[in-house]
Amino acid sequence: MAPMDNLSSEELMAKIAEGDNDSFEILVSRHQTSVLNLIYRFIGDRTQAKDLAQEVFLRVWQSAKSYEPKAKFTTWIYRITANLCFNELKSTRRKKWFSFNWSDEDGEHTFEETLADNAPSAEDLLLEKERSSQIANALQSLSENQRMALILKRYDALSYQEIAQVIGCSVSAVESLLVRAKRTLQKKLKNFEK
Amino acid sequence: MKCRNVQKKLSAYQDRELEPREQEQVRSHLLSCRACSEQFAELERVWQTLGEFEEIRPNPWFYQQIVRKIKKPREQRLFPSLQWVPRLLPAPVIVFILLVVGILTGTYLGNILSQSNIFLLHYEQASETVFTSMRVFDPAPPGTLAEGYFRMVSYKEDDSR
Question: Least CA distance to B71: which residue of chain A?
Fold first, then answer.
């Protein structure tokens, strides 16, 4: 398996198309953390993030034969991830409406509670969680596109061009999404920094 | 470069997305302008703060769980994929559709039955049944001892006349 570790993700995809399971395992281990965290930061729920991340790789496997390396592999897999995230949010909103559950509509406490559920008992870790939940709430206050653009820029260091490809908009639109997102976060995280 | 222009470009400057010449212009402006450099420092602080967001790790069985999903028979994967169908219609819409269908069906059946004689016959019988059953509230309901007594009394009264 060692020589295959040196293969690019695009080359691994070609091997997966031929039915090579080992290549798929390498590809998953290479991208699982970034995909999982992108979803987690966007959706704000660990369990949902894990399920969706698996769904992303399921789709990668299914579309291996039709995959054409036109863009970077990371851009392609992030595009799949972003689409799944947007669909999941739509579906969650629909479910809430469907079940007449209006209580979480503002989404004000949901993320905080989710993190608190997973919080360890140690005080220092709890403090870290608290800070994390404040950042999470600030992120949740952004629009879907702003949040996705910001996460891709801050945590995955994608260029504006790549973010535009992932979200499916122009480069100038990405620029203004990020300007607005940063402005909102400056207000939301003002107390946090002091 | 003027402050207004610089402030517009601060975000792109931070992301290193400006042309090299512009990037340099903003950089030299920040060195000389306190207001703009403070604004940029604020932007940088927020960026640093975002870095404190925890990172989660996938569980050790992550790959095996994906493989299990891949190996699942196609039929089992098909049904969950159809679960979105009812989600298309939210509850109020379904209630409204059921209400409309109910009203239309009721009206249709009512029209058909009112046109048939059988229905009229049944209707008369039914109204008789209703009136008979309503007599349980009489002071002397039919078939009771009290009714027999009242009959006897009224018979005697008729006789005496």
Answer: A58
